[in-house]
């Protein structure tokens, strides 16, 4: 049998539901800040068993959840796929060496 969710897990899930229901995503940053101030105070009272750090962590998760997604510019590869400078230098050195060998032949 699975253990019941912790108070933090319940608060997080409830916060995410409030964010979606209240239209926080895409709102003006000033309004979003005010909304999170009020909502964080509400959750601190509602979930009195949560520590101040947990309430702060809850707000951080909520703000990340409500933040607009960052769009990748067309034609750019994700950072993990981009070759490093060292790899580029090795590739250039290898290519230059191959041409030297070919020209000497």
Polypeptide structure, described:
The chain is mainly alpha-helical and 105 residues long. The protein has a domain at 7-66. The chain has helices at residues 7-22, 29-46, 52-66, 85-104. Helix 1 packs parallel to helix 3. It is globular and about 45 Å long. The termini are far apart.
Q: Give the helix/strand class.
A: mainly alpha
Reported for the largest beta sheet, the result is:
none
Distance between the termini: 75 Å
What fraction of the residues are assigned to beta strands by DSSP?
under 5%
Helix content: 55-70%
Oligomer: single chain
What is the residue-averaged pLDDT?
79
Structure in a nutshell:
66% of the residues lie in helices and 0% in strands.
Q: What characteristics describe this protein?
A:
globular; mainly alpha; disordered C terminus; 0% strand; 105 residues
Layout: helices, strands, pairs:
Layout: H1 7-22, H2 29-46, H3 52-66, H4 85-104
């Amino acid at each position: 049998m699975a253990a019941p969710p912790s108070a933090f897990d319940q608060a997080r899930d409830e916060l995410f539901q409030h964010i979606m229901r209240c239209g926080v995503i895409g709102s003006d940053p000033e309004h979003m800040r005010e909304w999170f101030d009020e909502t964080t105070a509400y959750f601190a009272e509602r979930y009195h068993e949560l520590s101040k750090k947990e309430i702060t962590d809850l707000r951080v998760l909520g703000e990340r959840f409500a933040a607009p997604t960052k769009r990748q510019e067309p034609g750019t590869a994700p950072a993990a796929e981009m070759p490093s400078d060292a790899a580029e230098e090795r590739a250039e050195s290898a290519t230059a060496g191959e041409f030297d060998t070919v020209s000497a032949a």
